[in-house]
Amino acid sequence: MPESPYWLAARGRQEEARQVLRELGSPDHDATFTVATERVGRPLDLLRGRLTKITVAMLLLNFAFNWGYWGLQTWLPTLLQDKGLTFDASLGFAALSALMMIPGYVSASLLTGRFGRKKVFLVYVVAAALGGLWFALADSTFELYAGNFVLSFFSLGAWGVWNTWNGEFYPTALRGTGYSWATASQLVATTVAPSAVGALLAGATGFTATMLVINAFMVVTALLAVPLPETEGRGLE
């Protein structure tokens, strides 16, 4: 991946910036960039002015979304055994679920150009939460498969949208810093979620209750996305 043309221009590397545009096929590849002169990457700037609400919502969303995903995926074979599947069958189930993630990614990428990142993300997260509810309340093997396939399809489609949308909230001077904060929030959730779900299972909470707790984080994810700005088609600063 080449460096951002804005980043290169901010460091006086105008010709390298133009070369990146040439490689991308941009009609503006002969342009001379005018860039801001402020110092780049100051972390506290993420919590100033209009960016404050975006940063807080973004960090909480990354935590909730990653918590819901890894809380489920880490313990999926164990949860399925609680529903009567053998260990081998539960691993096969998880593999089939992973296959459903591929069309989820593809469909979301095709839809964002037409409907925008925010709308597609919200629809996919809500659909994933409904699939998780179906999975949590399943009374048959068919419902287990169908609910989890819906959950896998839409949750990973939403992840594909989010990883792009998340990178577009900030101006170039802060984009790398903002995305690193997002990644840090995800890593905290990735660390906490497996242990928390394991504690629920160790406490004999049961399949349905544990799944409902996990699914609640998907609902929180959708709510946190509502105030975030749409970036589809918007020029990056």
Topology summary:
Blueprint: H1 5-10, H2 14-23, H3 51-82, H4 87-115, H5 117-136, H6 141-165, H7 172-202, H8 207-225
Helix pairs in contact: 3-4, 3-7, 3-8, 4-5, 4-6, 5-6, 5-8
Overview of the structural elements:
The protein is mainly alpha-helical and 237 residues long. The protein has two domains: 1-35, no CATH class; 43-225, MFS general substrate transporter like domains (Growth Hormone, Chain: A). It contains eight helices and no strands. Helix 4 crosses helix 6 (141-165) and helix 5 runs antiparallel to helix 6. The longest helix has 32 residues, at 51-82. It is elongated. The relative contact order is 0.17. The mean pLDDT is 86.
Keywords:
237 residues, mainly alpha, Growth Hormone, Chain: A, 2 domains, 73% helix, elongated
User: In angstroms, what is the radius of gyration?
Assistant: 21 Å
Low-confidence stretches: none
Say what the CATH topology of the largest domain is: Growth Hormone, Chain: A
Q: How would you state the average pLDDT, rounded?
A: 86
Helical content (DSSP H or I, runs of 4+): over 70%
- Kindly provide the name of the CATH class of the largest domain: Mainly Alpha
3D shape: elongated
The name of the CATH superfamily of the largest domain reads MFS general substrate transporter like domains
CATH architecture of the largest domain: Up-down Bundle
Number of domains: 2
- Content-based structural category: mainly alpha
* Major sheet details: none
Domain Major facilitator superfamily (MFS) profile: 54-237
Main location: membrane
Membrane topology: Multi-pass membrane protein
Pfam families: Sugar_tr
